[in-house]
Design a protein that fits this description.
mainly alpha; 68% helix; globular; single chain; 103 residues; 5 helices; Serine Threonine Protein Phosphatase 5, Tetratricopeptide repeat
């Protein structure tokens, strides 16, 4: 629950272009989720995807792409959880080949 609150607050800061405030919150949310839920949990994928968008907006496209790839990997391993749990704004993510439909 704490991680989701941190992720939501980070998203609010990111929407206001307050990236310096958002980034540590995303990092903390991801760390909490990895420890509490494990590395394959869909909630972690959502936070990683959100964080990847921030990284790209702040000019760290390579880091953002790597984080996005981690999120997509988790999503692909949890197909039954996609619709119920993930609320990633796919308009912000990089286009993928048509043969791979992650969401």
């Amino acid at each position: 629950m704490v991680a989701k609150i941190l992720d939501n607050l980070a998203a609010a800061y990111s929407e206001q272009a307050q990236f310096g405030r958002a980034e540590p919150l995303y990092r903390r949310a991801v760390a909490i989720q990895e420890k509490a839920l494990g590395r394959d949990h869909p909630d972690l994928a959502a936070s990683l995807a959100d964080y990847s968008i921030l990284l790209k907006k702040t000019g760290r496209k390579k880091q953002g792409a790597e984080m996005e790839a981690l999120a997509r990997n988790i999503i692909s391993r949890n197909p039954g959880e996609r619709a119920a749990r993930l609320t990633v704004d796919v308009r912000e993510l990089e286009p993928q080949p048509k043969s791979f439909l992650p969401l």
